[in-house]
Write a structure and sequence with these properties.
With 166 residues, the chain is α+β, with helices and mostly antiparallel strands. It has 2 domains: 12-74, Alpha-Beta Plaits (2-Layer Sandwich); 88-154, Alpha-Beta Plaits, CATH 3.30.70. 19% of the residues lie in helices and 16% in strands. It is built from 5 helices and 6 strands, in the order αααββαβαβββ. Strands 1-2 form a two-stranded antiparallel sheet. Residues 5-11 have low confidence and may be disordered. It binds iron/sulfur cluster (3 copies). The site of one iron/sulfur cluster has 14 residues, from helix 3.
Length: 166
Amino acid sequence: MSERRALLRGRFDLPRHPRPIGALAPMAFEEACTQCGDCARACPEGILMRDAEGFPVLDIREGACTFCGACTAACETGALVAGRAFPWRAAANDACLSKNAVQCRICEDHCDAQAIRFRLLPGGCSEPQFDAERCTGCGACAQPCPAGAISLHPFTPQPLMETRPC
Ligand code: SF4
Ligand code: SF4
Ligand code: SF4
């Protein structure tokens, strides 16, 4: 692969869908996955669906991921590999009731990681703020949300700042 092509591939190889835990980077995943469905059948939570192209996708509207690893263990093609970070974090959109001055803290109540805090806004509104360092991307906050406001978004950890001598 040419250097330029590798660069372009790296730049655009961003995840579009939350795949089962352990998924390779998007292009490598779609090359390796045979769409056999073994991961979905192995998932005790029943939260792995097929996307429009037939690849497995984690649907947190159906429930939360416990990170048990059954999907990864069931995958025989190498599309899912144990030990890879899960690069997804939760966030709420503007349908959130609290953002619209309706009292609600349901998502916070369902987050075992204590990743959600509320910031008060003018007009009796408040905004759920998701701590990307605490959030595991489990999705347990999404299904109970009465507004259906929560979804997963790609997360790239920020590299540590390089310290240079003055
Ligand atoms: S078990 Fe592996 S190859 Fe089969 S659908 Fe799941 S990710 Fe794809
Ligand atoms: S549960 Fe949903 S509606 Fe309620 S505060 Fe959280 S994001 Fe907003
Ligand atoms: S996805 Fe899981 S860890 Fe992240 S905010 Fe929701 S419940 Fe908490």
